[in-house]
Design a protein that fits this description.
five-stranded mixed beta sheet; 31% strand; alpha+beta; 127 residues
Length: 127
């Protein structure tokens, strides 16, 4: 596996651990719909189980060039919306839906890792 893939996986693991500590229930990780490239990093339930949250994780070693969440552009938002629609339809989801972004900035063995959880970051229906 390429180094950047390992780094991204570490960021997703870090984000999932953060969510669990906050009381979220992880339902799926790295969900992919069929043969398409539609994928979702983390799917979880809020601590009160009333809302299903689709979380896009962005990991960067540093934020000197740009904030990691800036990588979630309109094309990515449309992609996430279609993937979430596939997930909801194929699993009969009835909860409220929300789209969050979690940015993880730092390195695996660093004592200084910054996590930024942006709740309700976007609505793909508004594009």
């Amino acid at each position: 596996m390429a180094e950047h893939n390992d780094f991204g996986r570490w960021g997703e693991d870090y984000a999932a651990g953060y969510l669990q500590k906050q009381g979220y229930v992880i339902v799926e990780r790295n969900w992919v719909f069929g043969r398409s490239s539609r994928d979702l990093d983390i799917i979880c339930l809020t601590p009160d189980h009333t809302t299903m949250v689709f979380v896009e994780v962005k990991t960067r070693a540093t934020d000197k060039v740009a904030e990691p969440e800036d990588a979630v552009d309109s094309a990515k938002i449309r992609h996430l919306g279609r993937a979430a629609d596939d997930y909801v339809k194929s699993n009969g989801i009835s909860q409220e839906l929300r789209f969050d972004i979690i940015s993880v900035t730092g390195r695996k063995n660093s004592k200084h890792v910054v996590i930024n959880h942006i709740k309700d970051a976007f609505n793909p229906l508004l594009l």
